[in-house]
Design brief:
The chain is mostly helical. It is rod-shaped. 93% of the residues lie in helices and 0% in strands. It folds into 2 domains: 30 residues; 58 residues.
Length: 89
């Protein structure tokens, strides 16, 4: 019985030590309080919104530039076609 008693006490000591170590780790890695977490999330949301707005603006500028280049290329193509047609007449 002493073997079982010492075995049980070893398990109990290991359990208590593990619980204390787990509690210490939990305190070290615990998330920030609710108010601080909300502030961090709000700040990240603002950063994300600013990035999205920047990307939308840059996307619109890119599309506008491409549209201008395509329109210019079409116009040059029409002019070249008209000149080639005049030469054949």
């Amino acid at each position: 019985m002493t073997d079982q008693g010492s075995s049980a006490s070893s398990v109990l000591v290991a359990f208590v030590l593990g619980a204390m170590a787990g509690a210490a780790v939990a305190l070290l890695y615990a998330p920030a309080p609710g108010e601080e977490t909300r502030r961090r999330l709000a700040a990240r949301a603002r950063e994300g919104q600013q990035r999205a707005e920047t990307m939308v603006r840059e996307g619109r500028e890119f599309v506008s530039r491409q549209r201008d280049q395509v329109a210019s290329a079409i116009e040059r193509g029409r002019e070249a076609f008209d000149e080639a047609r005049k030469e054949t007449l």
